[in-house]
Amino acid sequence: MWNRERFDLKVRLTLRVAAISAACFAAISAYFLVTTDRAAHARIDGIAAIVAKTLELQQGKVLWTASPRSDFPNLDPVSAYVMTPGLCLAFRGPGGDMLQRFCSGAPVAEDPPPQIFTAFYRGLFDPGREAARPVILRGTKLGDAVVSVDPAVQTAEAWHEAGRLMLALTIALPLLCVLVYAALARALRPTRMIRSGLEQIAAGDLTARLPPFDLAELSAVRDVFNHLAESLDTALAERAELTRKLIALQDEERRHLARELHDEFGQSLAAIRALASSARQTAAQDCPSLLGECDGIARTATGMMETLRGALFRLRPPDVEELGLVASLEGLVAGWNGRSRGETRYTIRFDGTFETLPATISANIYRIVQEALTNAAKHAGATRVNLELAMHADEIALAIDDDGRSHDPAAKSGMGLLGMRERVAALRGRLSFEAGPNGGSALRVVIPLATATPHALEHAA
C-alpha cells in the first residue's frame, strides 16, 4: 500500500518551482496580451471618436455656409493625421450602407508571429473588431464613423508586445530550473551526511554523530539524531553490562554445579563401582551365580561416570587461559569427533594469531563454539560441520557451516542459540543464523575488538 514511486527531493522541489514559475510566466504573458488588446481597442475607439467629430464639423460647415456643393462625408483630411498601417476608416449611412471607406495597406512583416500564436490570439481576443461612433448633428443621426484594424496587423502587434516576452520566459524557465536544482543540491548536500549516519546506526555503529549544519531545519535533525544515537549507545551499553553480569552469574552457577556433581555424585559413583568390585570378589568365592549382576552394576556405574565426565566437561570447560584458545577449540572438536564415532565429521581452521586475545573473549568464543556444536549435533542431523575462526585487524569472525536440516524450529529458538546471542550481545558483536547457500545452516559471529576492553569484559566469562 505504501510502495509508491520515489522521486529525488531535489527533482521534486525543482519540478514544483518550475510549475509555479510556469504559472507565473503564463499569468504575466496573459496580462501583457490583455493589456495589448485593450490598448488596441482604446486606440481605435479614440480614432473613431475623432473621425465622428470631424464628420460632424464637416456637415456643420456645409450647413453654416449654405453651400449647394457638399462633399460630405470626406475622410481624406482626417486620414492624413490618424492613418496607420492596416487601419480602415469608413462612414456608414443610416441605412447601413458604406458610403465611403478608406484603408491603408498592411506592411509585409519581417518577423511574422508563429501560426500557433496567431490561432491562439484570434480565438481568444477576436482581433479586427470594429469600433463605431455615431455622427449626430442637431439631434439627427447622419450615420456612423467606423474604424477597424486588419487582424493580421493587430496580431503582429500583440506578438511584438507580448509574444517576445513569452519567448524570453520560455527560454528562461529551463535556465531557472537548472539554477534552482543546483541551489537545492548545494543546500541539501548535508542530507547525504544524514543518510550516511543513519546507515552507520543501522549497521550497529552507535558512535556516529552529525556535524553542525547552517540550515536551522537540518540543525534540528542533527540535534535529534545525535541525542538518539547517544541514548541508544547508552542503552545498549547498559544492556551489555547487564548481560555480562548475567553470563558471569550463569558461569559461576555452572562451576558450582560442576563442583557439586564432581564431589558428591562422582564420589558416589566411584564408591558404587568399588563396592561392585568387592561384591564380585566375594561372589566368586561364595556365590558364583551373582557374578553377572556384579559386573552389570560395575558397567552401569562406569557408564554413569562417563556421562558425568561429559556433563562436567560441558559445564566447566578446560582453562582456556592456560591452554590457549586454539588448543582448547581443537580439543573440543576432537572430543566431538570421538563421540560421534564417524557419523558426523567436525573440522576447524584458524586464520590469524590468537595468543594476544584477552582471556575473557577467548572464554566467550569457546562457549559460543561449544553451544553451536551442541546445536548442530542435537537438531541439525548433519554429517559435516566446518568451523573457521579468523582474526582481523579490528574484529574476530567465526563461521560455522553444516549440511544438516536448516529449517528445524528447535535449532533457531532453543536455549543454545539464545545463550549465544546473549554472549555476542555482551561483546557488542553481531550474530546471524540462516540457511546456507548449498543447504544446511550457516552461523556467523563477528566480535569487534575496539569495544572488547578489559573494563568492558571483566565480568563477561
Automatic annotation (TrEMBL):
TM spans (from-to): 13-34, 165-185
One Gene Ontology term of the molecular function aspect: phosphorelay sensor kinase activity
Subcellular localization(s) per the UniProt record: Membrane
UniProt xrefs under SMART domains: HAMP, HATPase_c
CDD domains: HAMP (cd06225), HATPase_UhpB-NarQ-NarX-like (cd16917)
Any Gene Ontology CC annotation: membrane
PANTHER family listed in its UniProt record: NITRATE/NITRITE SENSOR PROTEIN NARX-RELATED (PTHR24421), SIGNAL TRANSDUCTION HISTIDINE-PROTEIN KINASE_PHOSPHATASE UHPB (PTHR24421:SF58)
Name of this protein: Histidine kinase
Biological source species: Bradyrhizobium guangdongense
